[in-house]
Amino acid sequence: MVRDTKLYDLLGVAPGSSDRDIKKAYRKLALKYHPDRNPGHEDEFKKVSAAYEVLSDEEKRKMYDEYGEDGLKGGMGGMDGGSIFDVLFGGMGGMGGGRRRGPTGPRKGRDAVREMAVGLEDFYNGRTRRLAISRSRKCSGCDGSGGTKPGAAHSCDTCHGQGVRVVVQRMGMMVQQMQMKCDVCSGT
């Protein structure tokens, strides 16, 4: 069930629409509100682009459908159903009997970002281009640990290699404790 339809309404599509329909609606609105073609509508263009960014990404769309805009802002990513209980009840100085641990699953690397000049006509017509990106491979000398020898890993100074940091907030008489992905090492 979709919790919030604001972004779907902005693009003029139904929540169950296919990726193709969403892309088609976005292109139409992007041309309509593009600042080069229609000055004075920069805000509409930004809103439409932001909506497309969420709805075109499978993970972001799933998060938006389940939690609405709060899910995108709240940083619920990287947690499974069991870890939410660890966040709420575990690792509170021994009160919950839990332990601090990092996010489950394989660690995600940084996104590869490259700029590419694209004309408005090519963009509208959906022209496909190829882009060669070089990427790093695991070093045979340290086996990908980053140390001088295999197993000698360098850990983040902020999270000490846990991949998460604990944030404690006081809210009146209550204390809220949350685990969040480390923003220094991005949980890697």
From TrEMBL:
Gene3D superfamilies named in the record: DnaJ domain, Heat shock protein DnaJ, cysteine-rich domain, Urease metallochaperone UreE, N-terminal domain
InterPro entries: DnaJ_domain, DnaJ_domain_CS, DNJA1/2-like, HSP_DnaJ_Cys-rich_dom, HSP_DnaJ_Cys-rich_dom_sf, J_dom_sf
Residue span(s) of domain J: 6-68
SMART domains named among the record's database cross-references: DnaJ
Gene Ontology MF terms in the entry: Hsp70 protein binding; unfolded protein binding; zinc ion binding
Source taxon at top rank: Eukaryota
One biological process term in Gene Ontology: protein folding
Segments forming CR-type zinc fingers: 126-188
Keywords, comma-separated and alphabetical: Metal-binding, Repeat, Zinc, Zinc-finger
Pfam family, one: DnaJ
CDD domains (alphabetical): DnaJ, DnaJ_zf
UniProt name for this protein: J domain-containing protein
Provenance organism: Kipferlia bialata
